From TrEMBL:
A Pfam family that the UniProt record links to this protein: DUF805
InterPro entries per record: DUF805
Protein name: DUF805 domain-containing protein
Organism of derivation: Acetilactobacillus jinshanensis
Residue intervals passing through the bilayer: 26-48, 54-79, 91-112
Keywords carried by this UniProt record: Membrane, Transmembrane, Transmembrane helix
CC terms in the record's Gene Ontology section: plasma membrane
Amino acid sequence: MTFSKAWREFGHHLFSAKGCATRSEYNWVVIPVMLVFILLAVVGFIMLGHYALIIPGLFMIGIDIILAILIMIFGFCLLARRYHDVGSSKWNALMIFIPTLRYLDLIYMMVIPPDPERNRKYQN
């Protein structure tokens, strides 16, 4: 799956936990979003370190917090679809709301292969 197709699929199923998300779709969405999130956090904290940039730094941190909330909402739906793809319960996606497990779970879902038997049943 290409980058643009993965983002189109993600956009079409933004609020839906039904269906499957392939490993490539998941990776093409999660990796860029995580990089932007990290970049905003780093820039915000660097700005907070300079006295003249405290207000813009707080603004960047505010954007980071809003982005984190959106990532958790949309990420839950994407993660639930990815859990369906690997043959696990969609309810496991609730781990995204547990801070320490969130990152481990996101990384784990990047590497685990899909369940071909489950996907064959889903496609028929």
